[in-house]
Amino acid sequence: MERSEPLDPMRDRHQPTRAALVGHARLTLVEHPLLATQLTVLRDIRTPPPAFAAALAQATRFLLGAALAGAPTTPTTVPGHSGTTASGHQLARRYAAVAILRAGLGMLWPMHELLPSAPVYQIGVRRDEATLRPDIYATNLPHSYAAIDHLLLLDPMLATGGSARAAVALLRAGYHGPLSILSVIGAPLGVQMLLNADPGLDIFLAALDDRLDDRGFILPGLGDAGDRLFGTQ
Ligand code: PRP
Q1: What domains sit in the chain, N to C, each tagged with a CATH number?
Q2: CA of 8 relative to ligand 1 center, distance in Å
Q3: pTM of the model as a whole
């Protein structure tokens, strides 16, 4: 019987160093002591799914805050206490999000909290663990992007970047405006691939890790975010 060769999906993929990406104009590494502690909870393999979900949501709040740090606002007024009128701000741009299933679901709730008027769409992408190629199995996207000024793509992990690139390609068929990817951990290879693939996107990460292992897992990483979130194997 013929013996099959062991799968080596990372063969022929040159991995850039971390240093090659740090400082890139369209890559933001979000730094905050509270984000660092949430990231530690996510990396800890003992963290059970509910605590993992909570830490992912907390981390997403920091990423969202960084991605919208320079967002323009317009003045508004609201009724205040004791019959007063209070002046305030509202966002000047219309945002929408696209979550990459499954793990991107863990980033949805902070979107609803902080951007309550932003619609949230989904793209289901499954990475084939043998070839590391993305397989799109579901899409729920807007018929028109005319009412969207800025799109946020949510996926906790950028490993080879294949899943996010497949999602970006789908979105770019109809959307040509600013696109920000919010992700907790990225590997240099995936980040470089995405930045090279689309000059109109920027990336916000809590951590840029060292590299991918032979199976395409981020090191040190946190394992498979979808499995960690949903308690699956
Ligand atoms: C994981 C992760 C990303 C993708 C990253 O999802 O959540 O979507 O892999 O890998 P890539 O950058 O090499 O494409 P997975 O395919 O395991 O699906 P899941 O979210 O349903 O677990």
Answers
A1: 20-70+93-230 (3.40.50.2020)
A2: 18
A3: 0.95
